[in-house]
Design the sequence.
């Protein structure tokens, strides 16, 4: 019964409260119920009166204090009962800006003295200044790399972007990847003056940085000695996930990529960031290969990443091209020899022999050319053997007088797509053999 009576008494008292606002348009007196319709919240207990007012209301006004824009409401809460009239100054004044940013920090600035709250500034005496995050006082701000500074005109709180207590969020703006940092700060300033014995001024401020572009980087950690592309893609917040990847314009989901033989995994960092690692063999079907110089191959990996960003799961695309040149071509070292009727060319079958073509002079030696000219080609476990008759088309003959002997010379050429190592096979015949040939022709 006592509790019900107390609540009824407070309810009756609540109905007796009125609010008087003073603004540039004049004075306005309304009941608390009418004030609630305008967005105000008023409450009272046995020990305190509580007024909550919206920003930019018709009864509010703006002023600039020490370079900071302040939104203020000058009001008096009145309680009247019979011959009793209780007046309480419920003027409020809050900063609406005072936020500045650099690439690495955010700073919140609040005036040290607010004229609407301190009528006699000469009697003002600051007692304590505290800061907090998420509604909790931070006793030693410097331990968290926060900076709390104050002088006669300003109080400043500086927070490193990404510092503990705030939240980083990935975002996409205009097709560009970046991050946004937000933190909930509060400032508590206690002072005394001649009008009020003690005033505790508390301001809560939610601060969000502008969009900060952070173009992802692709780092080539390729290991040529292992014939393995190792590509790092990052750095990202935990709210980013890899949803697809294309190798050589062929799309894969992460599961499909793993099944194909690609290796994809995440590497976390101590600061909460992460990167995606992709490993692809040089010998993979989707790696481009180009033969350069005399004994080198250029391997090219074309990658297109698709990632999901932030809680909105916005898709972001990023392409990369990674190259590696490796001296991995072993040039064929053919060996030539002869007998009385044929020239022979033996070519080892190791390495990239399948990429090499045989030419006779400037003509490609294919099956048709071999057939009409009587050439024979055979392979064993180690070599390709090319047999050419001594007097076949394509053999070059030279007559030289050297110790009463002459010799026949055969010229064979082996070449690649872009470079042409040359092999020459020479066979000697005695002079009288040539003489017999000449006499028969005569």
Sequence:
């Amino acid at each position: 019964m006592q509790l019900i009576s107390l609540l009824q008494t407070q309810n009756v008292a609540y109905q007796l409260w009125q609010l008087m606002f003073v603004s540039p348009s004049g004075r306005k007196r309304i009941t608390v119920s009418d004030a609630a319709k305008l967005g105000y919240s008023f409450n009272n207990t046995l020990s305190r009166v509580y007024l909550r007012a919206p920003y930019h209301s018709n009864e509010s006004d703006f002023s600039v204090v020490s370079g900071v824009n302040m939104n203020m409401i000058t009001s008096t809460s009145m309680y009247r009962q019979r011959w009793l009239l209780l007046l309480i100054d419920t003027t409020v004044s809050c900063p609406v800006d005072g936020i500045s940013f650099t690439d690495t920090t955010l700073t919140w600035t609040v005036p040290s003295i607010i004229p609407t709250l301190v009528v006699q500034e000469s009697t003002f005496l600051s007692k304590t200044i505290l800061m907090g995050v998420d509604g909790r006082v931070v006793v030693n701000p410097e331990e968290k790399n926060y900076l709390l500074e104050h002088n006669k005109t300003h109080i400043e709180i500086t927070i490193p972007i990404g510092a503990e207590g705030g939240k980083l969020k990935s975002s996409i703006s205009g097709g560009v990847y970046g991050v946004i940092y937000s933190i909930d700060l509060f400032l508590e300033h206690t002072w005394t003056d001649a009008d009020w014995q003690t005033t505790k001024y508390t301001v809560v401020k939610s601060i969000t940085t502008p969009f900060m572009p952070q173009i992802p980087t692709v780092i080539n950690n390729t290991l040529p000695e292992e014939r393995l592309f190792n590509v790092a893609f990052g750095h990202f917040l935990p709210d980013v996930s890899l949803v697809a990847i294309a190798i050589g314009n062929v799309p894969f989901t992460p599961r499909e990529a793993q099944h194909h033989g690609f290796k994809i995994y995440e590497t976390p960092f101590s600061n909460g960031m992460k990167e995606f690692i992709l490993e692809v063999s040089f010998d993979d079907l989707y790696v481009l290969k180009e033969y350069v110089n005399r004994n080198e191959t250029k391997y090219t990996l074309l990658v297109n990443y698709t990632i999901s960003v932030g809680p909105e799961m916005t898709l972001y695309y990023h392409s990369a091209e990674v190259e590696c040149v490796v001296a991995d071509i072993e040039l064929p070292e053919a060996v030539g020899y002869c007998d009385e009727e044929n020239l022979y060319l033996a070519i080892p079958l190791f390495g990239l022999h399948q990429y090499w073509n045989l030419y006779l002079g400037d003509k490609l030696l294919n099956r048709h050319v071999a057939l009409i000219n009587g050439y024979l080609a055979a392979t064993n476990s180690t070599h390709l053997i090319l047999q050419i008759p001594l007097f076949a088309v394509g053999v070059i003959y030279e007559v030289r007088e050297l110790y009463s002997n002459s010799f026949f010379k055969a010229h064979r050429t082996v070449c690649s797509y872009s470079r042409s190592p040359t092999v020459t096979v020479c066979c000697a015949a005695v002079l009288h053999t040539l003489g017999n040939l000449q006499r028969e022709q005569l």
